[in-house]
Amino acid sequence: ENGVQSIQFGAFRGTNIHNLAIPSSVQLIEPFVFNQCHNLKTISVDPNNPNYTSINGILFTKNSDTLICCPELRCFLPIPPSVTSIDQSAFADYLLLKSIVIPPTVKVIGPSAFRACVNLTSIAISSSDVDIGQSILADCLNIETVILPFLPDIEFQNYIGLKKSNVQIRVALS
Question: 0.70 exceeded by the pTM?
Answer without folding.
Answer: yes
